[in-house]
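Researcher: First entry.
Model:
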Amino acid sequence: MKANGKEETRLVVVSNRLPLALRREGEEWRFEAGSGGLVTALGPVLKDRGGLWIGWPGNRDPIDREVLRHILGPVSKASGYRLIPVILEKEHIENYYEGFANASIWPLFHDLQMACLFQPRFWEAYRDVNSRFARIVRRHSRGSDFIWVHDYHLMHLALELKKRNNNRRCAFFLHIPFPSPDIFLKLPWRYEVMEALAAFDFVGFQTLRDRQNFQACLRSFWPSSRVRGRGPVVRISRNEGNIIAGALPISIDFTHFMNLTRSKTARETVKALREAHGTRKILLGVDRLDYTKGIPQRLEAYERALELYDELREKVVFVQIVVPSREGVDAYSRLRDEITQTVSRINGRFATTNWTPLTFFFRSFPADELAGFYRAADIAAVTPLRDGMNLVAKEYCACHADNDGVLILSEFAGAAGQLAPEALLVNPHDIEGLARTLLKAFEMAPQERQSRMRRLRRIIRRRDIFWWVDNFLRAAAGKALRDFPPGDLAPLVPQPLERHLS
């Protein structure tokens, strides 16, 4: 589509994963719709605007290209935007995804250097996969498009495009924390990663601290770099060119989560939980299985609180939901075993004939059922050791339309920068302090609970996911969301000579 003889600007989203997951069941391939903040945020933005989403479809087994086309074609039409797959081989998944992305960058950027594995083959695979993504982006995008790259898996994409003399406008958003120089400099390929990030026109971070850490790392390699501007978005000048960097915290679809609590499933879940636990207060934890989430420390703090405070016994129940993740990785299997053993120990120590202090679910729940858990919980404990944002904290608040409930939040979660001081901030490493905070939340007067929750909900509602998208586009592309007009579904193969998806 053209306006005044010029091509319309399309939005091209690039992430490690497409907003779906392919699963093989016998001889058949099935797909599951994606969930989570990124899909919720960008699905409505891309829909019916002629945009594209480029990513790996999540398959670990080889898949025939015609089968893939047969699956993605109808999904693209239903979604209102074109899904373009990037095919990864087994060695790529092992070394790029499980290796460099999740065994090197993930622990390093979460301040857990002792968990890092730095293998040259990881780095080589990471560059190879970023190069493969760049080829797909170059093939399916055009000069007027705006390329929005997401997260630590694809930090090299803009540089790979430039190597191909492809000067698409590229913006990057990092969903996880960015470390301080003393941590980042431990990465063997630190200069190469920083050079790659500097190739983007815009680099976005969750918090001001993350953006400042990025600026400090830039100065480590380019001491002459200068920061100009104040506020969330600044311009960083280097001899090699300028970078715009911003602190733009991601959020949730507030109205969507609030409406979920009115669904039949959510109401039935609330009723079931209340019938199961009576007048006892419900403490809730919801986490993906990961060593950054602080689950063992939270359980230990709950155990300590039961030891210290008799008034909590038989008056509170802790419901901990852990969503399976990376089950084939030994460290995650060990973490699950540790959690299971701790749950058994706590219940063995404190359970009575009428009370089981801890209920543990190792599974995922549909969004409407999870909203019921949020709504039923009197207290939510969101206590990661380190987190880019943590949307569970915001989802919990959105589900409390009655303005009642207490949020306990780690000071090391990105969300703390927005939700303090209405949340009860804690240091998740301080077991005694976290135990005291559990008691404080349990004893908090109704008026204070409601006052705090009302202000928390106001903050999240005002800066919801659509606020985030609009502000990111304004800062990175100089355009508002309305400046990406309706458009036809992008063609699968833009050039007649191209016959393959990758």
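Researcher: Second entry.
Model:
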Amino acid sequence: MKSRIEAVLLDLGGVVVEIVGADRMLEWCPSLPDLATLWTRWLASPAVRDYETGRTSREAFGQRVVEEFGLAVDGATFLAEFATWPRRMFEGAPALLDDLARRFRVASLSNTNELHWERFEREWALPARFHANFPSYAVGRLKPDADYFEHVLDALGLAPAQALFVDDHPLNVAAAGRVGLVARRAIGPQGVRAVLAELGLGGAPAPAAGTAP
């Protein structure tokens, strides 16, 4: 495995960036029974797919989400809350990305939008930590669709087996595996390090608590 992997492709939300907001969505939409149902519906939502592939404005997205999910708030209130969903980089994420960048080509593969991407750039300079970035709103494709992964592989000039993909959502991991990527589920930097160890890809030990922002 070690000799085959040339690139590590990381999801952002849930892997590099802590995402909050799900509890508020469940509060605003009592018809959603649990987090798993919320995220399954979110990935399939026409409003979300249009916004996170750059096909609609944030204002239209906010209104459509309210209507689609039957939220008990207006579009502006939802958008104000939605803007805060990326809370912070996980502790240990900067050190992990630095470790990976010394040994692999590292790319971000994220279902995201211009509102959140602005925060990633402005507050954490996150895109600069990767050799390449594939935010869904800019490439016009989304996980878990096969053409998203195919686009990334083509852009990087990689065969599927040369890339390790790590995501926190099982649907995305399964989809990447069907395309032929080495795909694993993990949550946070420690989860990524565990995946690297499992595959014999080594890596520096995690930093001591409190050393990351």
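Model: Note on the second entry: The domain at 21-84 is CATH 1.10.150 (DNA polymerase; domain 1).
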